[in-house]
Write a structure and sequence with these properties.
six-stranded mixed β-sheet; globular; eight-stranded mixed β-sheet; Nucleotidyltransferase, domain 5; disordered N terminus; 408 residues; single chain; 2 domains; alpha/beta; 14 strands
Length: 408
């Protein structure tokens, strides 16, 4: 359809965005050239008896409990509800399906139109993101089968960071590790950073090409990115999403020799140590919970470990803001986004405390005020503005997929 009448296709299309995880499936549907939101939701706990599907649309919000034994049935249920509520007439009539893919390696720096050959190339990148990649690819395979003839476009979290200069992406390792195995800093959360950077330019009323920003994407996974003129010049995550600041269950920056020491001292094998660093560390490792809300509750009750976890996490964020202020030379705004960044006033306070020498002055009253909108939380006289901007990765994926398919 796209090849025959691209203009008509563009006018009539609806865009589906899929974010497929190991036990979840997030989705949003957009329509029209203005990317108007039509519906969205999530299937949780796929493969578990208590799986559930949640759908929000213009007509309301509902939740359906029941078995979703695998991703195929989960996606079939999503399409059934989308057609039942007249959101999508038929899956094969979609204009494009945009997929979040965590890792594009060094090869994929732009969106990718999926076919059999490109899907096989993506499979070869699985060692770079073994926790995310199989689920991402499963979503592509299922959508291709259920939406026959509809263009499937992969949008990579790593793509935004391919503007990093060599001094930022190259590790100080033997050259063969890069040339033969592509060991380098890739960075993640790029789609989110790209979205909030454009929104920041709107609120600052300046072309993004003129702005220097520090973006903190703070959720269960967290990263900090230095954005110069709309381009990433440094970011805290590395070859995998393990490096950088303290996260829910991931350790962030540690001495590279720690895993070897633990293997020698404890007898743990590589798999066990890798699992520890990804799933048993971070906030969870420091105080027993990776959920920031639980950590806060324990800290408020006087739990010293939880209080230390908050101190460590906030301090690491402050260090990165200071480092990226130096890297950028001039900072116009610091942006907080994602679940913790948008909703946790105390963590924003911890991240900004003591950075007045960089021109970063948080307004305590503004920062502590309730709100879910895009808002400035710095003092009026602060040389560097501080903003809270809710992210919308699905909307950005829809925009990227639309731009890609209409200009292909």
């Amino acid at each position: 359809m796209y090849e025959v009448c691209p203009r008509l296709w563009y006018l009539l299309m609806k865009i589906l965005v899929l974010n497929c995880g190991s036990s979840s499936l997030k989705f949003k549907v957009f329509s029209d050239r203005d990317l108007y939101w039509l519906a969205g939701g999530m299937v949780e706990r796929i493969g578990q008896p208590d799986s559930r599907l949640r759908l929000t649309w213009a007509g309301g919000e509902n939740e359906w409990p029941g078995a979703a034994p695998d991703h195929r049935i989960a996606l079939q249920r999503v399409f059934h509800l989308l057609t039942q509520h007249d959101i999508v007439a038929d899956p094969t009539q979609l204009g494009v399906v945009g997929h979040r893919v965590v890792h594009g390696g060094d090869r994929f720096r732009t969106p990718l139109l999926i076919d059999a050959a490109s899907l096989e190339e993506l499979r070869q990148l699985t060692p770079l993101a073994p926790l995310h990649h199989p689920a991402n690819l499963r979503g592509i395979e299922l959508a291709t089968a259920l939406c026959q003839g509809v263009p499937q476009v992969a949008v990579f979290d790593t793509a935004f960071h391919h503007t990093l200069p060599p001094r930022a992406w190259r590790y100080a390792l033997p050259a063969w590790t890069w040339h033969e195995y592509q060991v380098r800093r890739y960075g993640f959360h790029g789609t989110s950073v790209q979205y909030v950077s454009r929104r920041a330019a709107k609120w600052l009323d300046r072309p993004i090409e003129e702005l220097n920003l520090i973006v903190l994407h703070l959720g269960n996974g967290a990263s900090v990115t230095a954005v110069q003129g709309g381009r990433s010049i440094d970011t805290s995550m590395g070859m995998t999403p393990l490096e950088g600041v303290v996260m829910g269950t991931r350790c962030g920056d540690i001495d590279a020799s720690v895993p070897f020491y633990l293997m020698r001292q404890t007898g743990l094998d590589v798999t066990a140590v890798e699992r520890m660093l990804f799933f048993e560390s971070g906030l969870h490792g420091l105080c027993g919970s990776g959920d920031m809300r639980t950590v806060r509750a324990h800290a408020a009750a006087g739990d010293a470990d939880a209080q230390l976890a908050l101190d460590v996490a906030g301090y690491r964020l402050k260090k990165y803001i200071g480092a990226y202020s130096a890297a950028l030379g001039r900072v116009d705004a610091v942006i907080f986004t994602a679940g913790i960044g948008e909703n946790d006033a105390d963590m924003r306070q911890r991240a900004c405390n003591g950075l007045e020498l960089f021109g970063i002055h948080l307004d305590s009253a503004r920062n502590g005020a309730e709100g879910t909108d895009e808002r400035c939380v710095s003092r009026d006289d602060s040389p560097v503005q501080i903003w809270v901007i809710p992210t919308d990765e699905e909307l950005e994926i829809a925009r990227i997929a639309l731009d890609f398919i209409t200009t292909a």
